[in-house]
Amino acid sequence: MRTYFDKLLNPAEQQKQLPLIYPLLIALFSGAVFSFALAPYYYWWLAILSPALLYACLRKRTAKQAFAIGWSYGIGLWFVGAFWLYTSIHVYGDTNSFLSVLMIAIMALVMGLFTAVQTWLYRRFFPETPLTFAPLWVLFEWSKTWVFTGFPWLFAGYAFTERYLDSYAPLFGVFGVSFAVIILACALVEILNRKVFWIVPAAVLLLGAWGASQLTFVEQKAEKPLSVSLIQGNIPQDLKWLTEYQTKTLMIYAQLSRTEWGRDLIVWPESSIPLFQTDIEPFLDAMNAQAKKTGTAWVTGIPYWDLPESKREGQPMYYNSIMATGDESEGLYKKQRLVPFGEYIPLSGLLSWVLPALQNDPSMSGFSRGASDQKPLSVKHHDLGAAICYEVAYPNLTRRNAQQSDFLVTVSNDAWFTGTAGPLQHLQMVQMRAKENGRWFIRATNTGVTAFIDHHGHIVKQAPMDKEAVLRGDLPAMQGETLYMRLSDWPILAFSLLLLIMGWIYRPRKVDVSFKSRR
């Protein structure tokens, strides 16, 4: 008896398909292994094999079967790929193991519906070809950046950060890289199915990646590099917001910064000051005076209580923010995207019994969203485009903040996910944002990964994780715009939509007939 894969790939076996349970299990496994293509494992070839298996499993299946197969893939993808949430829910959320796993399973069931709808549309309305499967994949990755506020994780393009296909990033962003990855994955299946002409478009994509790598969009400004020090305090998450630990937190960051005054810029991570600015004005005044005295700019994460806005709105308006002060520096950036379960609790009143320990954490409730038209931070005559923590996962948001900037800065607190793949996957996204926008990224974190990332997306220097550390670097300011910075995701989205329209118009009539006959 032939193997199931032979049946998947051989058109002669169209009428001899094995029971649905086989593609369901293969899809579940394929989705589950996808995350190992990303940091910290870097088995990039799995980002090709995983969608290739899904593509093969959908061959000659009905739309209803495709929905089930896609859902199975999505469940495996999100349950394994986002299992790093377990640490924040169980360890820091004080939720028992069973409920923690159950919550991740529910999340996987919900997020898996993205792939389920994607595969249903693919088999219901379009011909079986990489030129319809890949565009749908890209459009559904993009939808994860905005549907229900978005959960933009586990994109295929991230597997090629600092690898060959990433040269498409300055042109078309991470979705352009994902498009190339999925076309190559599907082409592999078609070639194994003896449709050898797919070698040509695969070769064109690879040759195009080489050509894209030869393009130059940005250049270094003719001025001295900015000397920067990043401070990593390594404050445990379970102590961070305790009243009795707040003074110690400030002392740790102040002590680590003592040797750094006199450099151009010192950066503290997200909420490194665990108090509102209204509660700690003497400390802020002292730090500002020290910074001005030594000719240093100081950028720090801090929860910010906007008093004038609170009066206008008739309620407290709190923001997770980055503040720039000190010598020749000013600005305040208010976070625009808040992460559910990592920063606030959706439906907190209904879920208070599930996550009891998080109800009194100031970082988990009450924050408002910042405006979308905020100015960059001004530091030493440089403009710094800012992003706080989870925001760097949103390509277009980071692109908007990067416009008219010389550098990009992000502050984060990944202590929620210590010991998991989450912080390293988060860093991988920062690398892709640097590549897309052609800017150096300054990344200061509480527990890691604190790093300097150049405009090519390469990690130039990083601090050890889960340790107190000071990371120093001299960074050149960049000027110019990548194609992605100018046009955003619209070129790859429009191209994907065009392919789908053409696929729908020119689909074989027998596809529609086969569906009618199976209903």
Automatic annotation (TrEMBL):
UniProt keyword list: Acyltransferase, Cell membrane, Lipoprotein, Membrane, Transferase, Transmembrane, Transmembrane helix
Protein name: Apolipoprotein N-acyltransferase
InterPro entries reported in the protein's UniProt record: Apolipo_AcylTrfase, C-N_Hydrolase, C-N_Hydrolase_sf, LNT_N
Family note: Belongs to the CN hydrolase family. Apolipoprotein N-acyltransferase subfamily.
Membrane topology: Multi-pass membrane protein
EC identifiers of the protein: 2.3.1.269
Ranges annotated as spanning the membrane: 20-36, 42-58, 65-86, 98-122, 134-156, 168-189, 196-217, 490-506
Swiss-Prot/TrEMBL GO biological process terms: lipoprotein biosynthetic process
GO terms for cellular component: plasma membrane
Species per Swiss-Prot/TrEMBL record: Acinetobacter bouvetii DSM 14964 = CIP 107468
Domain CN hydrolase: 231-477
Organism placement in taxonomy: Bacteria, Pseudomonadati, Pseudomonadota, Gammaproteobacteria, Moraxellales
UniProt xrefs under NCBIfam families: lnt
UniProt GO MF annotations: N-acyltransferase activity
PANTHER family: APOLIPOPROTEIN N-ACYLTRANSFERASE
Role noted for this protein: Catalyzes the phospholipid dependent N-acylation of the N-terminal cysteine of apolipoprotein, the last step in lipoprotein maturation.
Top class in the EC scheme: transferase
Main location: membrane
Subcellular location: Cell membrane
Residue ranges that the Swiss-Prot or TrEMBL entry lists as coiled coil: none
PROSITE patterns with a match to the protein in the record: CN_HYDROLASE
Pathway(s) where this gene product acts: Protein modification; lipoprotein biosynthesis (N-acyl transfer)
